[in-house]
Backbone:
């Protein structure tokens, strides 16, 4: 599968093997904010965007080392859960990393080769068992290294884990290393959900090129059934597990009472679902008078025409995307409905008015109001004259610094936690119309940006930013709004 | 006016939380804790206990009142439930309520369907919280608790009361139907969260409530709170900093083990401190397992760190005044506000709810927030509470309220309390005494105070004067 191979090369490049065979992780710092940084190893010294406090050990909440182990057949959303959970935990400042066993398997077999057909069987041949062990060893080694030598706190082990016996063994083994285990099972018996998952993730591989999509889906499901005939759903009462049924319809939590983090994880999972959807970001139009924080100005004429153009551009884009998708063999289902979120500031509400007229649902969210600039609501020159020390401090750490009476980006990030969770909850495609500071924080969350990058993210008014979730990460795209300049003014 | 970036503006959603479960399963405790937690987070929450509506008509019912064959009993109980639901709906509509908790057994499908229909017809979300327990010991504990403190059994012989209560439970058991309606939003807590089943949650506020509920348990336990001993900065009247203890503070540290032992006994408790020197030094002589939490560090005073109140008044007069006007929301320049501290303390509060016997040694502002959480003190009052040095406060959450006891180590210390709109010179003042015991308050086991404490600090012996101080001067405190 082409995409997985690319991931393997990127992934393995993170290690250099020194002479005594101890891998030394090479920390890659991506300063390109257009690429999802979720799979980078976390940089030690930096605080995460919503981290409340830092500790010497690097671990938070006295929760110790935790291994989250996924359980579930293929196409049940395990990878999606692992990636989404890492994103959230990293956002909170918990050092997390996901280890996908599938990657190790594909890396070991090499591109184009597959494992022997009895690889997943319970009574597999000795050769297959040995192969399994080798691959498992490599993955476990990296996992232990992360937790023990890199101050990692949560390691997410993404694999099928089909048998109860296997899970018990795993839990015992982790305990020997002082790691607590939480199992997360994604249990799906609704065939529609399975089909949708298979369709969106699995049949884009080269194996299915040229196939009729419906046939491809059925073939994949059949193959998976043959490959992994024996699967035991979780019911081991003595273990800690979270069983999510049918993409979050119901959740069973067994025993996870050993710390603050497990409950926080359950809290996040309650808000997660495995259906993918697009997120769009757009600025509100320019308002009359200054863009003052205290004044709640209405849109000026320019802003009005901007909002009209925004509405058209977005709907055009969605139509075109759908046609392209159908042409490439995707299903011809209706486009997912679009919901719009604005803050309670009038100019954001007005910007969304055209979409509302066309029948789209618009919701106002009070916590999405912009960063309170406090006393710094003036031009740069004025700030430099009136508050020179603050200005210097701000340049050093724009993310955490607060102007007098104002908020910092960190405050904004913490304040927006409910929004972020609602973002995960939302099943429809979502357009967010807000002030630039708010968009920066939300984009920073979805693309795992570091605190040094968030305050300088740019959202010019002639672009709509689209974020597409893919299987391993999020992808950002910029959609131009025709006839518009960066300030939102009309350009013929 | 400070910006209201509060949790309360999440949605305009109004949720009715409906408790479900047999008697003695901790429903009222859970309901009250949810209310307390939400209020601490500035969400308008209220609990409506159907039992108290029923008590208005039938104050001392016997078990057969609860038999479903008893027509008259059924009618009265149904009337009480209706009255409670009506009050709750009225509260939603007219008093801007956000989360109303209907505290009753609600153990039949038909009752639940009726409540759901009533609430949905007015446009409110409904969420059911079921507490299911078959652990005999836990149930017995609860029964013992209820029979001594419930208004239903005041003045009755405890044995008779226990038997009657068990009969009452048996009547409920006959018609109990656990929740399994798949279209309802519910969370089922089995054996106090050893297993939790969550179904069809539909919005963020519901997940927040469930998240909190999963941390709860109903095993009895106590919480001991104390400030660090008097620090050198306290003596000079300075704010913040990371100073060590003064000599009097050191005596407190030495007296603490005795003081705590007298109250705790031989049990093992968990001990939490902040990462600042003064709290660590205070717990030097305690042998319990210790944990340091950065989240327990004192409120960051920003630019005012290291200054006295007088200096602040001179240097930042507007700020000084603004802080007094709205102490909860006011944020020191470069520092924090009480609201920020509350957000920062959330993991601590969750852990305290989850845990059993805990002692926390921390700082004034932090203690005010923690105390306000457990004792339901509203936000405009919590930053002004007096939490004196050299005192251990013991809180015991109970089903119908939280009990408070204070233990003074009679080692004098400065008062760090400053009333609104004053800039009292703090340094060098002698100890401001805690309110003397109110007439009628019990004083168990008073031990004599050693008078030469002041002259010879190293010989200070632990003394404990037990004063049961209620918020309003009476023994049982509001929960």
Residues:
């Amino acid at each position: 599968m082409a995409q997985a191979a690319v991931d393997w090369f990127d992934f393995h490049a993170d290690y250099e093997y020194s002479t005594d065979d101890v891998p030394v992780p090479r920390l890659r710092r991506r300063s390109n904010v257009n690429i999802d940084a979720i799979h980078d190893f976390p940089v030690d010294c930096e605080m995460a965007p919503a981290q409340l406090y830092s500790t010497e050990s690097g671990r938070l909440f006295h929760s110790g080392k935790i291994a989250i182990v996924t359980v579930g057949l293929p196409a049940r959303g395990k990878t999606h859960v692992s990636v989404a959970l890492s994103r959230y935990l990293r956002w909170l400042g918990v050092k997390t990393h996901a280890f996908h066993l599938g990657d190790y398997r594909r890396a070991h077999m090499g591109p184009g080769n597959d494992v022997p057909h009895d690889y997943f069987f319970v009574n597999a041949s000795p050769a297959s068992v040995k192969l399994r062990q080798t691959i498992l060893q490599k993955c476990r080694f990296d996992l232990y290294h992360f937790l023990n030598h890199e101050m990692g706190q949560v390691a997410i082990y993404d694999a099928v884990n089909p048998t109860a016996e296997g899970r018990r063994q795993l839990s015992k083994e982790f305990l020997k290393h002082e790691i607590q285990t939480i199992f997360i099972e994604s249990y799906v018996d609704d065939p529609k959900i399975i089909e949708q998952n298979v369709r969106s993730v699995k049949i884009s591989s080269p194996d299915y090129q040229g196939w009729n999509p419906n046939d491809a889906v059925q073939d994949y499901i059949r193959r998976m059934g043959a490959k992994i005939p024996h699967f035991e759903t979780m019911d081991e009462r003595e273990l800690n597990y979270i069983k999510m049924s049918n993409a979050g319809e119901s959740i069973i939590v067994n025993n996870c009472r050993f710390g603050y983090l497990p409950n926080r994880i359950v809290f996040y999972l309650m808000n997660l679902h495995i259906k993918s959807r697009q997120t769009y970001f757009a600025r509100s139009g320019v308002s009359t008078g200054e863009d003052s924080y205290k004044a709640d100005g209405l849109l000026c004429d320019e802003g009005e025409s901007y909002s009209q153009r925004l509405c058209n551009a977005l709907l055009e884009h969605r139509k075109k995307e759908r046609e392209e998708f159908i042409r490439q063999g995707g299903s011809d289902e209706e486009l997912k409905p679009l919901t719009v979120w604005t803050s309670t500031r009038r100019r954001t509400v007005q910007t969304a008015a055209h979409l509302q007229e066309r029948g789209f649902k618009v919701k106002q969210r009070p916590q999405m109001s912009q960063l309170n600039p406090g006393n710094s609501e003036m031009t740069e020159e004025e700030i430099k004259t009136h508050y020179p020390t603050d200005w210097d401090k701000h340049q050093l750490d724009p993310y955490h610094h607060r102007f007098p009476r104002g908020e910092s980006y960190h405050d904004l990030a913490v304040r927006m936690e409910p929004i972020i969770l609602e973002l995960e909850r939302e099943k429809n495609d979502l357009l967010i119309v807000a002030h630039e500071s708010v968009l920066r924080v939300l984009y920073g969350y979805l693309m795992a940006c570091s605190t040094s990058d968030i305050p300088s993210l740019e959202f010019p008014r002639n672009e709509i930013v689209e974020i597409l979730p893919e299987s391993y990460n999020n992808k950002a795209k910029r959609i131009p709004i025709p006839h518009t300049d960066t300030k939102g003014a009309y350009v013929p | 006016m400070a910006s209201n970036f509060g949790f309360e503006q999440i949605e305009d959603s109004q949720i009715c939380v409906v408790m479900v479960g047999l008697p003695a399963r901790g429903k009222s405790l859970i309901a009250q804790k949810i209310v307390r937690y939400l209020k601490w987070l500035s969400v308008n929450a209220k609990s409506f206990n159907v039992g108290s509506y029923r008590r208005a008509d039938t104050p001392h019912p016997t078990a057969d009142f609860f038999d479903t064959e008893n027509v008259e009993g059924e009618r009265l109980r149904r009337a009480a439930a209706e009255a409670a639901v009506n009050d709750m709906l009225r509260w939603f509509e007219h008093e801007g309520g956000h989360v109303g908790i209907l505290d009753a057994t609600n153990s039949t499908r038909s009752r639940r369907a009726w409540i759901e229909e009533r609430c949905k017809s007015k446009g409110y979300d409904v969420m059911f919280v079921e507490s299911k327990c078959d652990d005999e010991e836990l149930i017995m504990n609860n029964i013992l608790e209820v029979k001594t403190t419930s208004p239903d059994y005041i003045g009755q012989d405890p044995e008779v009361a226990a038997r009657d209560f068990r009969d009452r439970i048996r009547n409920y058991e006959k018609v109990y139907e656990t929740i399994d309606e798949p279209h309802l939003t519910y969370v089922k807590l089995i054996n106090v969260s050893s297993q939790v089943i969550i179904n069809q949650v539909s919005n963020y506020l519901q997940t927040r409530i469930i998240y909190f509920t999963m941390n709860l348990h109903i095993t009895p336990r106590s919480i001991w709170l104390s400030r660090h001993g008097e620090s050198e900065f306290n003596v000079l009247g300075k704010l913040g900093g990371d100073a060590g203890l003064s000599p009097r503070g050191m005596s407190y540290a030495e007296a603490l083990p005795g003081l705590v032992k007298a109250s705790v006994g031989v049990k093992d408790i968990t001990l939490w401190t902040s990462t600042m020197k003064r709290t660590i030094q205070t717990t030097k002589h305690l042998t319990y397992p210790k944990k340091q939490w950065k989240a327990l560090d004192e409120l960051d005073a920003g630019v005012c760190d290291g200054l006295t109140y007088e200096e602040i008044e001179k240097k930042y007069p507007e700020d000084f005044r603004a802080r007094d006007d709205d102490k909860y929301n006011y944020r020191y320049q470069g520092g924090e506000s009480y609201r920020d501290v509350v957000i920062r303390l959330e993991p601590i509060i969750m852990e305290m709810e989850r845990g059993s016997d805990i002692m926390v040694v921390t700082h004034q502002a932090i203690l005010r927030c923690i105390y306000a959480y457990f004792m339901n003190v509203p936000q405009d009052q919590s930053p002004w509470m007096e939490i004196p040095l050299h005192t251990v406060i013991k809180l015991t959450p109970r089903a119908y309220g939280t009990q408070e006891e204070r233990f003074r180590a009679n080692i004098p210390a400065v008062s760090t309390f400053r009333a609104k709109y004053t800039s009292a010179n703090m340094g060098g003042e002698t100890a401001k005494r805690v309110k003397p015991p109110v007439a009628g308050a019990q004083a168990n086991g008073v031990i004599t105070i050693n008078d030469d404490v002041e002259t010879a600090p190293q010989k200070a012996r632990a003394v404990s004067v037990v004063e049961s101080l209620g918020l309003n001067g009476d023994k049982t405190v509001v929960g």
Remarks:
- Confidence is low (pLDDT under 50) at residues 1-30 of chain A.
- The CA atoms of residues 399 and 455 of chain A lie 6 Å apart.
- The longest helix of chain A spans residues 301-327.
